[in-house]
Amino acid sequence: MIILFVSDEERFISKKRYDRCDVVVGCGDLSPGFLDYVVSEFRPHFAVSVLGNHDHRYFPDSHEPVKRGFTDIYKGVYLLTKDYVDLRKWVGLNLTIAGFSGAYSHGPFPFHYQEKEARAFCSKMKREKTIGKIKKIDVMISHSPPHIPGYFRNSDYFHRSSVPMGRLLSYLQPPIWAYGHVHPRYGRQELSFETRFLSRRSLVMNAIPYCFLDYDEKKREVNGLVSLHPILVQTVHMIPLKERSR
Ligand SMILES: [Fe+2]
């Protein structure tokens, strides 16, 4: 299946390579209008997104809790704040997507988070995986990046990677982990990775501004990646959790 990822920068998306996709995935800091454009143009079976730190502007009543799922704000887009969705239940696609919203800062969740919120989300995911409620996660999306030992060292406090989410990456090892927030044009550093741990591989990918992934949901493998700019994928061998330090 073809999955179109979009994040942070609202660009025209060429239809030269793909004029349709199966799923649209937003990694945050995108307006309802832009997501509406992407969904109308590429007519996916399902669209899903997390929220970024700039998205509070689309929620005029700051005292109302932000709802997950389908809302009146992002019409036709399923919002994930700290949960997951099995697409078989909605559109019959063999794909489970988990998402965690927000950027690292002291503002209110789901537009911002602190590590204790990330830890709580990771514990919930691990618990549900252990008891078999979650069978698999194919795609994990977050606005901020997961921590990968030795990388994201050039990031400032606000753009730092999340240590609990890095641990969740090692635990779940989803074939795809897409994130945004760290704009590639702001500085030179590695932003996309193929992490390897034992026989499993995860593509950890900065999705700004957009990219198409060809995903084999039966084999749970990425077959191809098409982006606006060439994406340099750094290979990282993950080490067991107990040996890791930030
Ligand atoms: Fe952001």
What's the gist of this structure?
This protein is an alpha/beta fold and 246 residues long.
Overview of the structural elements:
- The protein is 17% helix and 29% strand.
- It is α/β, with parallel strands linked by helices and 246 residues long.
- It has one domain (2-243): Purple Acid Phosphatase, chain A, domain 2.
- The strands form three sheets. The chain has a seven-stranded mixed β-sheet with strand order 4-5-3-2-1-14-15.
- A hairpin with a 2-residue loop joins strand 12 (192-197) and strand 13.
- Helix 3 (115-130) runs parallel beside helix 4.
- Bound molecules: fe (ii) ion.
- Fe (ii) ion binds at residues 29, 52-54, 103, 143, 181.
Q: Domain count, please report it.
A: 1
SSE order, one letter for each helix or strand: EEHEEEEHEEEHEHEEEEEE
Shape category:
globular
Ligand identities: fe (ii) ion
Nearest-angstrom radius of gyration? 17 Å
> How many alpha or pi helices?
4
Strand content: 25-35%
Distance between the termini: 36 Å
Uncertain regions spanning at least 5 consecutive residues:
none
CATH architecture: 4-Layer Sandwich
* CATH overall fold name: Purple Acid Phosphatase, chain A, domain 2
Q: Based on DSSP secondary structure assignment, what is the total number of beta strands?
A: 16
Specify the CATH class: Alpha Beta
